Amino acid sequence: MSDSEPLTARESGTIGIIEARTGKAFVMKKGQSLKLINTHGAQVIDFFAFALDVDLRPLAPPTRQFLSMQHTRSGNLRLSPRSGSKLFSNLRKPLFTIDEDTSPGVHDTLVPACDPERYRQLGVQGHHASCAENLQIALEEHGYSFPKDLTPAPLNLWMNVPVKEDGALAFVQPVSREGDYVVLRAEENCLAVCSACPQDITPVNGYSQKPSDCHFEII
Fold it and tell me: Is 158 buried (19+), middle (13-18) or exposed (0-12) by CB count in 10 A?
């Protein structure tokens, strides 16, 4: 299997790495599960998903489906999904179910993927890797596409964004621990994309502000 080929059901049992600051795409067949491991304990993974047809091709408008955080919050009546929660699409259909979560269960559904403009606003000069860019790279490597100006809000696994009593938000380090993992089971054929968030200016990836590798297993 070359690095340019998407992982599919025939590679079940594959264990691999999502390198810090990069993304990886997975073609998931209905019933297949993806285990994402927070190897070092404080790394956020931006998780995106897009429904595929029976031939593993993306659905076209108006039936195009992608993971939607606003529909996931509404469908679960929770700000943050937990073990047993379903992850819904923009058409209110479940794309994944969280079958297992060994972490304290703190994840974010409010914050959009980091992008070049976010880093410019934070004072970065020149290029800085971002989750929005990682998404596009991963999609393009596997022959898929999605409008760059319509990047869906991801499920930010292990991202800790507490909501204060006055409604204010804060970015603080994750409460996940080394080796914590989540298992996501596909409810439909999907293309899943994971980005090991490159954020190194705010404490999103821990107060050390050093993005780290994560691991995955297709089960």
Answer: buried
Query: pTM higher than 0.90 for the full model?
Result: yes
Distances (CA, A) of 167 to 150, 161, 193: 26, 11, 30
Q: What are phi and psi of 110, to 5 degrees?
A: -100, -30
Q: Which two tokens stand for residue 172?
A: 């603080």
Determine contact, residues 202/209, Cβ cutoff 8 Å. yes
Contacts of 63 (CB under 8 A, 6+ apart): 91
Residue 75's H or E segment, with its range, is: helix 69-76
Tokens 């970015």 locate to 171
Closest CA to 201 of 138, 135, 125, 103: 125
CA nearest neighbour of 144 among 28, 59, 21: 59
- 190 near 52, Cβ under 8 Å? yes
Task: Express each pLDDT in 39-95 by its tens digit.
Answer: 999 999 999 999 998 888 877 776 789 999 999 999 999 999 999 999 999 999 999
Unique residue bearing structure tokens 């931006």: 46
Please name the residues in contact with 26: beta carbons below 8 A apart, sequence gap of 6 or more. 6, 7, 34, 191, 192, 193, 194, 216, 218
